[in-house]
Write a structure and sequence with these properties.
Length: 156
């Protein structure tokens, strides 16, 4: 019986993992609204090093991470680097207030359904913050990269 349960768990894990983005996968092609009300197609950003950062206004570690991402963006935004924040907030006002308070000048998108949002499911986001680094060809090169990894990718 234990072997059957173990096998069943393994099959579930493998089938769930295959639905999530993996190293080497392409930048997904989907659209979300930004904080200015404009629809942004994620795949249109290919050609730059892109950091997709999943976060939410209520997530304390996310807000701390924003303090690192803002200067990183400011330093490398003119070097073919873009950060795209995808918020899993369900409250637009709280999201907009967090963008203003944290001085997030890089692209901010929202997928209002929290962890059930299509983007969160596509990327396999189970905790926040969660980030994904894509190279200029649009290939995923790192999940939750360090600042050093991001800088190395920008400089390639």
């Amino acid at each position: 019986m234990k072997k059957i349960i173990l096998l069943f768990s393994l099959v579930i894990s493998i089938s769930t993992a295959s639905a999530q983005i993996k190293i080497g996968d392409n930048l997904p092609d989907f659209e979300l609204k930004n904080n200015k009300g404009t629809t942004i197609n994620l795949a249109s950003l290919k050609g730059k090093t892109i950091l997709i950062d999943f976060w939410a206004s209520w997530c304390a570690p996310c807000r701390v991470a924003n303090k690192t991402l803002v200067p990183l963006h400011n330093q490398y935004k003119n070097k073919n680097f873009e950060i795209v924040g995808i918020s899993l907030d369900t409250d637009k006002t709280k999201w907009m207030n967090a963008i203003e308070k944290d001085k997030l000048a890089y692209e901010q998108l929202i997928d209002y359904k929290g962890f059930d949002a299509k983007s969160a499911l596509l990327f396999g986001v189970e905790a926040l913050p969660n980030s994904y680094l894509f190279d200029i060809a649009g290939k995923l090169v790192a999940i939750n990269p360090t600042e050093e990894q991001i800088i190395m990718q920008i400089k390639k």
